[in-house]
């Protein structure tokens, strides 16, 4: 437990460190929310702008080097991160200028490359004022608990800036697992800032009834809350969450609480104006950088006091001169069974663009794939689409997963989906699967690019590729945490040559964060080991 | 002839990069386009080029004739065996 004095002292230390370094722009990534909050305030008081990478992957941090003068928290390899100065007497803090270029966040958008979104301090303070006006009275002064990261705008506002402004304590650690949420609420009352991804996965087996009284507020944002997740909140947690609609670009736009009415409409936040032009939802608000109308990617119908969302605006693509609606294709794919979720994306192959499907099969879909192979399911889906789409638009590539690959904000980015079609990924068939174990038959294609030059004349599959495949296949069958921490008990017993039919056994021990793998074939054991993973689950 | 059919099946799979399909999955008598394998006119173009490269066959300018040749793997094998200029 740290008090305001400790916070103030640490902010002063960070301010001194940033001022001594002398830059204008700093990247900040840290897991600990106390460190994060104090570094953020310290940078602002030193007049610097803070860039928030969405994750700490080496590529993400490396890409930021060109934009910032230094790193706080995690730094890319070869650079040293700034640390707060200790001791010394701190000069008094001056009020910050509302015009300060305070922040750059990155879109979690489902399409394309992340885009940088700059925010002035005034945008952030009006967001926080709005949250206070709407929810302060009900929230009281209980601590804020969260499943989401403060590196994104939702977590930043709800678990850092709003509590700081309202004088409410906040938990310095995110709660990655439902068991953690339960334990935190057993310890005392709190507000829970959650992602729909977490609320969708609340195990009914935990004793939620014992903590209902301690759960004083529940928030959900970052993506739509499914009807199942809503029902789980009502049944297990005893309340419907306050859902907040917005995006990294728009900030908060509207909210609602569906206590009884499943289809309750969104209530526009005070100070925010909305309108629908040809269905497209447009927003004007003090949370935006300028006083202009911003067009969102959503369709909406205005109702008194707010609006109803009608889904994403259509994603249209021109394929061999013909217009295809990817959204309509996704709707057709899930209509009437076989798939629970579907995403359609364009892939460039040679000199044509083809469509590819990433699907989450339902029980019937998995049955079809287990009995007749992946091709049977793909063929059934093509037949389902055939009456509605030109034959040249029918998808050519299919990947089936237990769950959509999501980042820590619960979004499936186009890049993550496209990666599933990478030729470096081995073709495989599921033999058995459960929540803790998967048995796969994996083909080692003779034309795999991994045999190139490894070694000329006597191709064998590199050991790092074997580990990479274990992780990649593991991610498709279990909800694994994002960060690779280390390897344990790694053994390579026999080389793997082109054309080998491997049996890959994966075991996932969620409590210890260990993904075990064993690669065998008719020739015996090839490799085994454990991959230790950590970080928050999306 | 059977051997040529096998070769053409492999050519079709490789040229069009067909997923999850082995030569034995293709019925040599089944239609290649629309129903059956579900290939389209762009696939036909690609396949025509590949046949030309592998066997030196030149497609006629008569589209009705071409449609007949491309009806199935078996029809393609017939066409290639009588028109090939390369072995």
Descriptors for this entry?
heterodimer, A: 538 residues, GMP Synthetase, Chain A, domain 3, Thiol Ester Dehydrase, Chain A, six-stranded antiparallel sheet, 31% strand, globular, B: 87 residues, Non-ribosomal Peptide Synthetase Peptidyl Carrier Protein, Chain A, 4 helices
Helix and strand layout, with pairings?
The complex is a heterodimer of chains A (538) and B (87).
Chain A: H1 4-21, E1 25-29, H2 33-45, E2 49-51, H3 58-64, E3 70-73, E4 101-106, E5 116-120, H4 121-139, E6 144-146, H5 153-166, H6 178-187, E7 190-194, H7 196-199, E8 215-221, H8 227-237, E9 242-247, E10 251-257, E11 266-268, E12 273-277, E13 280-284, E14 294-303, E15 306-312, E16 316-319, E17 322-325, H9 326-334, E18 339-349, E19 352-361, H10 363-385, E20 397-400, H11 414-419, E21 428-433, E22 437-443, H12 463-477, E23 483-492, E24 501-509, E25 514-521, E26 524-534
Parallel strand pairs in A: 1-2, 1-3, 2-4, 6-7, 7-8, 8-9, 19-20
Antiparallel strand pairs in A: 4-5, 9-10, 10-11, 11-15, 12-13, 13-14, 14-15, 16-17, 18-19, 21-22, 22-24, 23-26, 24-25, 25-26
Helix pairs in contact in A: 1-2, 4-5
Chain B: H1 2-16, H2 41-55, H3 63-69, H4 73-83
Protein name (chain B): Acyl carrier protein
InterPro entries (chain B): ACP-like_sf, PP-bd_ACP
Domain Carrier (chain B): 2-84
